[in-house]
Amino acid sequence: MLRMPEPDQHTLARRKDIIAAMRDIIPSQGGVIVDDDQLRPYECDGLMAYRQLPMIVVLPENTAQVAAILKYCHTNKIRVVPRGAGTGLSGGALPMADAITISMMKFNRVLDIDWDNRAAVVQPGVTNLGITRAVEHKGFYYAPDPSSQIACSIGGNIAENSGGVHCLKYGLTTNNVLGVEMVTIEGEILRVGGKGLDQAGYDLLGIITGSEGLLGIVTEVTVRILRKPETARALLLGFNSSEEGGNCVAAIIAAGIIPGGLEMMDAPAIKATEEFVQAGYPLDVEALLLVELDGPQVEVDYLIDRVGKIAKDCGAVYSRISENEEERLLFWSGRKNAFPAIGRISPDYMCMDGTIPRGRLSEVLTGMQDLSKKHGLGVANVFHAGDGNLHPLIMFDANKAGDLEKAEAFGADILKLCVAVGGVLSGEHGIGVEKRDLMGEMFTTDDMKHQERIKMAFDEDQLLNPGKVFPTLHGCGELKTLHAKAVADKFPDIPRF
Amino acid sequence: MVDVLSPTTPDQLRDAVGWALGSETPLEIIGSGSKRAFGHSVRTNAVLDCSKLSGILFYQPEELVISARAGTPLADIKAALAEKNQQFHFEPGNFPALLDGSSGPDAGTIGGLVACNLAGPRRIKVGAARDHLLGFEAVSGRAEDFKSGGRVMKNVTGFDLSKLMAGSFGTLGVMHTVTLKVMPNDETSATVIVACSDPRAAGKAMTIAMGSENEVSAAAWIAPEDAPHLDVPLAGEYGSGLVALRVEGPKPSVAWRADALCRALAGFGECHEVPESHSHSIWKVVANVAPFVASENTGSVLWRVSVPPASGGDICAQLIEKTGGRAMMDWAGGLIWLQIAASDAAGTPDAMAGTIRDIVANVGGQANLVRASDEIRQATPVFHPEDPALARINARIKENLDPKGILNPGRIAPVSLNGEGA
């Protein structure tokens, strides 16, 4: 079971003083939440298997308040858990009994749209879709589109380096963010990056993106916005095996075509979604590809034709092309509702997030079927086929004794399989607490210590989001000690000149 | 005497760094040494030569991924990619030829390319080396192996140290293995050329093009005196400056978008489409910054200025006026190359740096000195000064990964200007 750092009794004993200090910093009504019933909504994020009431929740309204809160926490050695919209799937915003949860949801304004530089400056609590909403009247949009985009915040997207279905062509959050304002645990306000493409010094923007709230609290975000493609059309392609489907994905890319979206679903996922949303998916295929081409009409028509031919050569037994926008959205409705569709046929499900080299797909799917038998739980697969990001949905019943543990063990086995074939633990959901204890599958202790040394450069006392990402927290002293391997003065193996 | 260590395996590399750490011997880290003249010179008695850590480990075109030892010659990698009709999407040019007149084509190693975070014209659309580095393996200044990332496109497992290593000039760790994303070559491309001599007007034209639906993959401006490098005489004559805009993709789409761009920009000057064969050579000229290569510009200094793209035209005009230099814009104005001949340089190098940095500071830009004599580079900060708050974080990162300061000391900030070095 998940172990979090022990609550600090000294902090808990000072709760009253801390509340008073927070009320001084945020005087407005409702800015400091202390009662259990009001703390309850903050007890978990999208990973609902783990819950913990926070010590208190604060909702700052401006950067100065965030800086004052963090400075106070730094001085008084109080732990902090940053929180965006709370949609994260890896437990990155799981509260701690002795920590202040800082909700950024009052930072909800779009500050500036710089059309000439194609950049939007927004506060971190603005939703992912909210950015697109703010710029679409002039034909622009924000490209990364996690499936929670209607609710998830851009600040949370930066914390998790969120992806979505358009990553293969348009990149992840990290490739679309230009700059941030971030407050350190010391209360210092950093401005990193900007509308230009270079920054002086090390690439701090790159390391902040995807750091899961361990390095600071982002208070402003500048992202690249893109012109919306003139049109988009989608193809549904059915195959008799996932191997054929996988080969078709490889053939499309080998032909030099990078589709805007390239998704795959296996038979259990197709069946569940078709029963749920009636997207018109074929029920007699083992693998279904959803390929979306976007761009000028003339390009889309040309590529649809080419992809159709490639699919035929790859043995597609079903092929349908969207003839209008309504039909395209219908094709997507199945894929986008895959998670709730599984939720409908199973009391609970656990969504995994490994990435694998695409060529190993059929091997991994076969391995997953074996694991399904071993653990006695069903699994359905949706898959960002273009970039190898798997979302196996493990079906279980949390009310059945032992089922959650079985699902966790099954999930861990799947991720170990992903790593074994050259993949990774998480493609877009982050490590959080969910995959924390599996980090050792991918990284050596030295690898992780080097990551923690970056953490130390920002937060030496490890007050920001402790217990997340790293399975073992090494003390600062240990991280600083040099373990220089005794290397003889002479090493005859190395050529010298 | 300078001691040169040339490890041939990652284990030997770790031993070499271990020796340097144990004996507190600072190391200058080089691949082929092609970019040694970029940044401040590193004055050490020991050189860690990584060129023997060489070879492609795997290249899987269908997975869009290549992995190689850091010392692998870039030319070898580019040849392997070309054979499969693929490329690095970030389109690095021949940066070493800007530094050294004797540098050949595709000079340098893949590790050096990553360590300097280079990128060419397509950066405006797809990013730089940092955006395409999927993973690395390295030895830190603590003489410990560490790695980050992997070989897959989508990965948020742990901190993204790849971003940190790209552009760190070997000051945090010595990479021995790098894994990068590759992309297929586009089916075809075309370039639209607009006659435009005024950098401010050129900036406006590029801004309009980038904001259009036409998915422009590169936008550059060449001044009238340098336009002959592109070899596209408008109306049969040279004489005008040129805005060049590239579109890439499937044939019917490229034709359609090139037409649309010509229509949108007709008001700026004479406009015409350059066919594919010539389009390639134009963007080689831009990627390589051919007008300003070292071999043809002896004695001049070269600055690389990065600003928000839409302000590029105005900043470029100001830089030309205030320094008397020659300039060229890439990244739709986001990148300005500024060359100042020794005879035109007014005042001391430091005063010149101050003039340039004052102009770009108004728009939050950066100005780095790319080519200058060793003397000038010792006297003037080569890299744009860091914001003090960020500099403190950067210094802590450096200290935590290289506590004894043995990796490329002074490369980013010269030891004489900053007691700590970096």
Q: Briefly, what is this?
A:
Chain A is of the alpha+beta class and 497 residues long. Chain A is 36% helix and 19% strand.
Q: What can you see in these coordinates?
A:
Chain B: GO terms for molecular function: catalytic activity; FAD binding. The complex is a heterodimer of chains A (497) and B (422). Chain A is an alpha+beta fold. Chain A folds into four domains: 9-103, Uridine Diphospho-n-acetylenolpyruvylglucosamine Reductase, domain 2 (2-Layer Sandwich); 110-227, 2-Layer Sandwich (Uridine Diphospho-n-acetylenolpyruvylglucosamine Reductase, domain 3), CATH 3.30.465.10; 231-339, 2-Layer Sandwich (Alpha-Beta Plaits); 346-434, Alpha-Beta Plaits. Chain A has 19 helices and 18 strands. Chain A is globular and about 70 Å long. The model of chain B is unreliable at 416-422 (pLDDT under 50). Chain B has 14 helices and 18 strands. In chain B, the strands form four sheets. Chain B has an eight-stranded antiparallel β-sheet, sandwiched between helices. Chain B has a five-stranded antiparallel β-sheet with strand order 4-5-9-7-8. Chain B has a three-stranded parallel β-sheet with strand order 1-3-2, with helices on one face. Chain B has three domains: 1-185 and 386-422, Uridine Diphospho-n-acetylenolpyruvylglucosamine Reductase, domain 3 (2-Layer Sandwich), CATH 3.30.465.10; 188-287, Alpha-Beta Plaits; 290-379, Alpha-Beta Plaits, CATH 3.30.70. Chain B has helices at 10-22, 74-83, 96-99, 110-115, 123-126, 129-132, 161-165, 199-210, 251-265, 276-287, 312-323, 349-361, 374-379, 388-401, and strands at 3-5, 27-30, 46-49, 56-60, 65-69, 86-87, 133-140, 145-149, 173-181, 183-184, 188-195, 216-222, 242-249, 271-274, 301-306, 326-330, 335-340, 366-371. The chains are: A alpha+beta (497), B alpha+beta (422). The interface between A and B is large, with 111 and 110 residues.
